[in-house]
Write a structure and sequence with these properties.
The protein has 539 residues and is an alpha/beta fold.
Length: 539
């Protein structure tokens, strides 16, 4: 099932997407499993120890009833619905109920401010919102133009969706064609307001292939992806992917605690664990051997490059390699460490089944192995979005026509080796250009993290009058370690040995914590913007 492509073994050469002409996730996935092979689809627990379990039959019944409530209120096919919910079962219920009637859910994390909700509501033209009753006050100021309001739990003037759980009325299922819009994510870019990424039904259908070949979900599996509900990663590994393959998602609503992560993995006999590199870095600092992880058979990661030391530590204590993957909100997962190939730590994997990922220059010409360029997805591709909502021309700079076809430039820089594995370098606007040398922050971060005193690290460009930019490292030290000039020099000397000497951090800032997003991913951009906003060049 492999062919040679540019000297590399390329699996899935005969892959067929088999995209159906019409696809409704609620009827063609949830209802189908409920009818053909019912089993658990969701296990939920919160920090207090409360637990709720759902089968596919439960989810089918509840989403039919909530879908009817939405229809009765006037929501119809194509209407946008803000779903502002945390990691609770009502998130899945609301999402699938909206999809059932052909509405377009907009997943949003609860940490959004009223102003951020207002932008999404106004920009999308949302007709309805679904949120927790206790959270409504925090976002209500942003809902001025949203006519229909639903809550989880009773709230005056709002419809409580849980009140419909025991009512017999069921929704009329919508006919959803493959090209119909079904899902809208808002994702931050390097400039301006967040963009609305609009996906078609074909995209939701395609999510099953990363679940099958990367996550390796099978009926009966229990998968825990720790991503928050507002991100496409939750779609890949919490809802659409696992349920398409008949798996059971575990969801935990509670604060991050690395020891508690291990306890939950053991107690719920999780078989597939999906976590960002930053999270695994904290988890391996615990006494992993004290927990029974014998049920765990696969560990996967995406969103940031895995540090080799962390991956090796995890393998040593769990017996499992970390299988990495790569994708964007716009494209879903396009590079995978699929089952059956050798994981290469730090690599994004190979081109996903049915996808052609490559490294191209500014003109769309493919570059040879080893050269750094734009990570690009060849179009057309059924995983690719319909476009940016209400933003004509937003894609003009991201699509180029090269000699081998049309490419979507992901905004990331990377390289491909001779065997077809892709390696992340940086965001295209994260590259440090110092005295003519282009330096990717990930390589420097990995080198810094190898020093025994370092717990976490982020590397960005800082302004410099002589070199234009220099490498600056923000470092969180391990408990009990003193950050002083001696340690700065020791870390710099270490990086000079591990990486090329010109890549060492000329500036080092010891800090108590690094800025992170809701998924735990370190936000380099926040650090870089802080450095450049000072406009005080350092030498």
């Amino acid at each position: 099932m492999t062919v040679k492509e540019k000297g590399a073994e390329t699996p899935f050469a005969d892959f067929d997407w088999q995209i159906p002409h019409r696809f409704n996730f609620a009827t063609d996935v949830v209802d189908r499993w409920a009818e053909e092979r019912d089993g658990p689809c969701l296990i939920w627990e919160d920090a207090s120890g409360a637990r709720r379990d759902f089968s596919y039959d439960d989810m089918s019944r509840l989403t039919k009833r909530v879908g009817h409530a939405l229809q009765a209120a006037g929501i119809s096919k194509g209407d946008r619905v803000l779903v502002v919910l945390p990691r609770i079962p009502e998130w899945q219920i609301a999402m699938v109920a909206a999809l059932r009637i052909g509405a377009v859910p907009i997943p949003c994390i609860e940490m959004l401010t009223a102003a951020e909700i207002r932008y999404r509501a106004d920009h999308s033209g949302a007709q309805a919102v679904i949120c927790r009753a206790g959270h409504a006050d925090r976002i209500e100021a942003g809902l001025g133009r949203v006519p229909l309001r639903f809550s989880v739990g009773p709230r005056d003037g709002w419809d409580d969706i849980t009140a419909f759980y025991d009512r017999p009325d069921e929704a009329e299922d919508a006919l959803v064609m493959a090209e119909d819009p079904v899902l809208l994510y808002y994702t931050s870019g390097s400039t301006g307001y967040p963009k609305g990424v609009l996906h078609a039904a074909r995209g939701l259908y395609a999510w099953r292939y990363s679940a099958r070949h990367w996550l390796d979900v099978r009926p009966g599996d229990r998968i825990w992806c720790t991503a928050d509900t507002g991100w496409s990663k939750a779609g890949t590994s919490v809802l659409f992917g696992p349920w398409s393959e008949g798996g059971c998602a575990f969801m935990y609503d509670g604060p991050f605690d690395p020891a508690e992560r291990l306890s939950l993995l053991a107690r719920h006999k999780i078989t597939i664990y999906c976590a960002p590199a930053t999270e695994l870095n904290r988890v391996v600092q615990e006494d992993v051997a004290a927990y029974d992880l014998t049920a765990l058979r696969r560990t996967v990661s995406a969103g940031e490059a895995m540090n080799p030391i962390v991956a090796e530590q995890w393998r040593a204590v769990s017996g499992l390699n970390v299988a990495e993957a790569y994708g964007q909100t716009e494209t879903l997962m396009t590079a995978l460490t699929v089952t059956g190939i050798e994981p290469r730590i730090g690599s994004m994997g190979i081109s996903a089944p049915g996808s052609t990922l490559s490294i191209v220059d500014d003109a769309g010409t493919e570059l040879p192995p080893g050269e750094v360029g734009h990570v690009a997805l060849k179009l057309p591709n059924p995983q690719f979005m319909l476009g940016y909502w209400n933003a004509p021309g937003a894609l003009s700079g991201a699509i180029v026509d090269g000699p081998a076809g049309r490419w979507f430039l992901t905004g990331d820089l990377g390289s491909r080796d001779a065997e077809g594995y892709f390696w992340y370098s940086s965001r295209s606007d994260d590259v440090i250009n110092s005295a003519g040398y282009r330096i990717g922050p990930t390589e420097v971060e990995n080198a810094v993290l190898e020093h025994g005193a370092v717990l976490e690290c982020a590397v960005v460009a800082a302004p410099d009058p002589k070199r234009g930019e220099v490498v600056k490292a923000f470092i969180v030290l391990k408990d009990g370690v003193l950050g002083d000039d001696t340690l700065v020099k020791a870390i710099q000397d270490h990086v000079k040995l591990v990486a090329s000497p010109y890549k060492y951090p000329r500036l080092v800032d010891f800090c108590s914590e690094l800025p992170k997003g809701p998924t735990g991913k370190i936000l380099r951009r926040a650090l870089r913007e802080r450095e450049w906003s000072r406009q005080e060049p350092q030498s």
